[in-house]
């Protein structure tokens, strides 16, 4: 079973919260936090670490150690026999974490803004672009964020990262308009992966990818304070 949790980061974190939070994360992550210039990015990163650590400890019923691999992707290094996975994403005032006890998982969230749709050609396949260009503007905005987050969730789940050519993945846009997800790519590597779309409020698009196909029906919200209690 895959689950997704979210914490809102709109309100400024207090000094007391920071003091307690810093004691819960590795020293290497503290150094990473200090490199952020924008306070909101620093807050989101901190909340993502706290959320992932709490969820993993709740799942495993024991303390965990989180490290990073050579692609900078966080993972549980202790207990080393853990066969599951987790992934973090944040956008604007929301931070989310998806976790599974079995398999791999990737998650992505984006705030839905009016955006320059010309960048679609940077990540959409030729077939997707043909279908996309036939859509009315309202549907183009909707599909843009669904495709972007779906593809991001895939490269995060596989660990490929942004170097992966996203044009290699083709989704069926007419079906996506009906909230049905179908990967049209013939590559064998996609056969093991499942996808799902979610909305967080009316302004945020969330996509999930995992080779554990037991997906949740909704995103669970947690409070900031619960991450340090």
Automatic annotation (TrEMBL):
One of its GO terms (molecular function) is holo-[acyl-carrier-protein] synthase activity. The keyword Metal-binding applies. GO terms for biological process: antibiotic biosynthetic process; fatty acid biosynthetic process; lysine biosynthetic process via aminoadipic acid. This is 4'-phosphopantetheinyl transferase superfamily protein. Residues 105-209 form the 4'-phosphopantetheinyl transferase domain. Transmembrane segments: none annotated. Belongs to the P-Pant transferase superfamily. Gsp/Sfp/HetI/AcpT family. The lineage of its organism: Bacteria, Bacillati, Bacillota, Bacilli, Bacillales. Residues 18-97 form the 4'-phosphopantetheinyl transferase N-terminal domain. SUPFAM superfamilies: 4'-phosphopantetheinyl transferase. It comes from Terrihalobacillus insolitus. PANTHER family: L-AMINOADIPATE-SEMIALDEHYDE DEHYDROGENASE-PHOSPHOPANTETHEINYL TRANSFERASE, PHOSPHOPANTETHEINE TRANSFERASE. The keyword rRNA processing does not apply. Keywords: Antibiotic biosynthesis, Magnesium, Metal-binding, Transferase.
């Amino acid at each position: 079973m895959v689950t997704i949790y979210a914490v809102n980061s709109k309100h400024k974190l207090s000094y007391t919260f920071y003091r307690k939070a810093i004691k819960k994360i590795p020293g290497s992550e503290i150094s990473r936090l200090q490199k952020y210039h924008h306070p909101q990015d620093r807050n989101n990163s901190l909340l993502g670490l706290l959320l992932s650590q709490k969820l993993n400890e709740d799942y495993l019923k024991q303390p965990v150690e989180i490290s990073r691999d050579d692609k900078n992707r966080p993972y549980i290094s202790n207990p080393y026999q853990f066969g599951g996975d987790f992934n973090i994403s944040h956008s604007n005032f929301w931070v989310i974490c998806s976790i599974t006890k079995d398999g791999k998982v990737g998650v992505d969230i984006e705030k839905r803004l009016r955006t320059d749709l010309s960048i679609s050609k940077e990540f959409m396949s030729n077939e997707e672009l043909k279908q996309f260009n036939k859509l009315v503007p309202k549907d183009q905005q909707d599909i843009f964020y669904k495709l972007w987050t779906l593809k991001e969730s895939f490269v995060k789940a596989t660990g490929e990262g942004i170097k992966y050519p996203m044009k290699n993945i083709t989704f069926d846009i007419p079906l996506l308009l009906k909230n049905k997800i179908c990967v049209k790519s013939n590559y064998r590597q996609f056969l093991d992966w499942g996808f799902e779309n979610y909305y967080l409020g009316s302004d945020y698009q969330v996509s999930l990818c995992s080779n554990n196909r037991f997906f949740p029906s909704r995103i669970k919200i947690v409070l900031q304070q619960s991450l340090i209690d």
